[in-house]
UniProtKB/TrEMBL annotation:
It comes from the Eukaryota. The keyword Flavoprotein applies. The keyword NAD does not apply. Transmembrane segments: none annotated. SUPFAM superfamilies: FAD/NAD(P)-binding domain. It comes from Kwoniella bestiolae CBS 10118. This is FAD/NAD(P)-binding domain-containing protein. Keywords: FAD, Flavoprotein, Oxidoreductase. Pfam families: FMO-like. The lineage of its organism: Eukaryota, Fungi, Dikarya, Basidiomycota, Agaricomycotina. InterPro entries: FAD/NAD-bd_sf, Flavin_mOase-like, FMO-like.
Length: 337
C-alpha cells in the first residue's frame, strides 16, 4: 500500500496483512559475501511483487478492520497495488524541485493494464511504514552456506504440522514462543557463531554457538531480522533524517505506538529540534535490539513524546497534547508479556 500525501510526504506501507495459506515457496541463495537471501521465484525473476504475508494460521487480530476504518477518510490519497522500486535523492542535474525521487510500478500480481511501466514522483520527505516484516532478512552466519538442511524465514511459516517429527532451531524469538503447550518443546541456546558442513556427527551440519555449545541433527533453521543506520530511537535514517521508519520495534502494541512515533516524526520535520545520535548497539545484527516488551514500549514512547514537549500524566490533556498510558492499560499489557 502506498499513501501519497502531496505535496511533501510519501508514506510507504504494506497495508493490512491478509492470511495466505499457500504462499509461493521460499528459496534461499547466498551472495558473494555469504549473506543468505530469502526470496520467492517471482522476486528472483525481478518481478515487482509484494513479499508473502507473515500471517500464519491461528493468528487472531482485529488490526485489519481498524486499518480499514481509519483509512476511509484518506481514500483520496491511498494507492493500492503499487510496488515502490526505487527511492533516491534527486541528482543535481535532475529538474526535480523536491529532495526525493520515488519510482513505482503496478504490482505484477494486480490486473493493471500498466504492468511493466515505471512512474516517478517527487517528495520532500519519505516514511517507510511497513515495519520489520516487509523484506526477509537473515543475519550473516559464518558457514551457513554449508548447511544441507532446510532454511526457512519466519515469513513463510504457516502451521506447526509442517514440522512434525523434525528438530527446528529458531534464530531469534518473540512472544509466540510462549504460546500454550510450546515451552516444553523449546530449549534456549546462545546465538549461532558458525555452521560446519555435514559430517559423521550430523547429516545437515553442526551448529556451534557463541558459547561453544555444539548442536547436531537440526532439520530446519528459521530466522528473524535486524536493521542498521538508524538513530538512537531507531526511527530516523541518520545519513538523512528526511527519511523515517515507523514500527520497526517488536513486542509493542502497534497502533498507539506507531501513532506516537509518527507524531514525533512530524514534529521534527516542522522544526522541533531533536538530537539524533547513532544507536548504541548499531553493529548488532540480532533482532533483539528491536524488542521492547513491557515496560519497554511505554518507556520508549513516553520518552519520545517528552522530546517534543508532550508526554504528560494524561493520555490527552486539555490542550491536545499526548501523554502516558493509563495504569489499567499498562497492567493488561504486563499480563500479555
Amino acid at each position: 500500500m502506498t499513501i501519497a500525501i502531496k505535496p511533501t510526504v510519501l508514506i510507504i506501507g504494506c497495508g493490512p496483512a491478509n492470511f495466505d495459506p499457500n504462499p509461493p515457496p521460499c528459496t534461499i541463495s547466498f551472495d558473494k559475501q555469504g549473506h543468505a537471501v530469502a526470496l520467492t521465484e517471482l522476486e528472483r525473476q525481478g518481478k515487482p511483487v509484494p513479499s508473502p504475508t507473515p500471517m500464519y494460521a491461528g493468528v487472531t487480530a482485529n488490526t485489519p478492520r481498524y486499518q480499514q476504518r481509519f483509512a476511509e477518510k484518506y481514500t483520496d490519497y491511498i494507492r493500492l497495488n503499487r510496488v515502490v522500486t526505487r527511492v533516491r535523492h534527486a541528482p543535481q542535474d535532475h529538474p526535480a524541485v523536491k529532495r526525493w525521487l520515488v519510482e513505482w510500478t503496478p504490482s505484477y500480481t494486480s490486473n493493471s493494464p500498466e504492468i511493466g511501466k515505471t512512474f516517478e514522483e517527487q517528495f520532500d520527505h519519505v516514511v517507510v511504514a511497513n515495519g520489520t516484516d516487509s523484506r526477509p532478512f537473515i543475519p550473516h552466519i559464518d558457514g551457513l552456506w554449508n548447511w544441507k538442511g532446510e532454511i526457512l524465514h519466519s515469513r513463510w511459516y504457516r502451521k506447526p504440522e509442517a514440522f512434525v517429527g523434525k528438530t527446528v532451531m529458531i534464530v531469534g524469538g518473540g512472544p509466540s514462543k510462549l504460546e500454550t503447550g510450546w515451552p516444553k518443546h523449546i530449549n534456549n541456546v546462545s546465538p549461532m557463531k558458525i555452521v560446519q558442513g555435514p559430517s559423521e556427527h550430523s547429516n545437515t551440519g553442526r551448529i556451534v554457538t557463541v558459547l561453544d555449545q555444539v548442536i547436531d541433527d537440526v532439520d530446519t533453521i528459521a530466522d528473524q531480522p535486524g536493521v542498521h543506520n538508524l538513530d538512537s530511537h531507531q526511527l530516523f535514517y541518520l545519513p538523512d533524517p528526511t527519511l523515517a521508519f515507523l514500527l520497526l520495534h517488536a513486542e509493542a502494541i502497534p497502533w498507539p505506538f506507531s501513532e506516537m512515533q509518527a507524531r514525533v516524526v512530524a514534529s521534527y520535520w516542522i522544526g522541533t529540534p531533536l538530537e539524533l545520535i547513532p544507536h548504541s548497539d548499531e553493529d548488532n545484527d540480532s533482532h533483539s535490539v528491536l524488542v521492547l516488551g513491557h515496560p519497554g514500549e511505554f518507556e520508549y514512547a513516553e520518552g519520545l513524546l517528552k522530546l517534543i514537549g508532550e508526554g504528560g500524566s494524561e493520555e490527552v490533556d486539555s490542550e491536545g497534547r499526548w501523554g502516558a498510558w493509563p495504569e489499567w492499560k499498562k497492567h493488561i499489557r504486563a499480563l500479555i508479556d
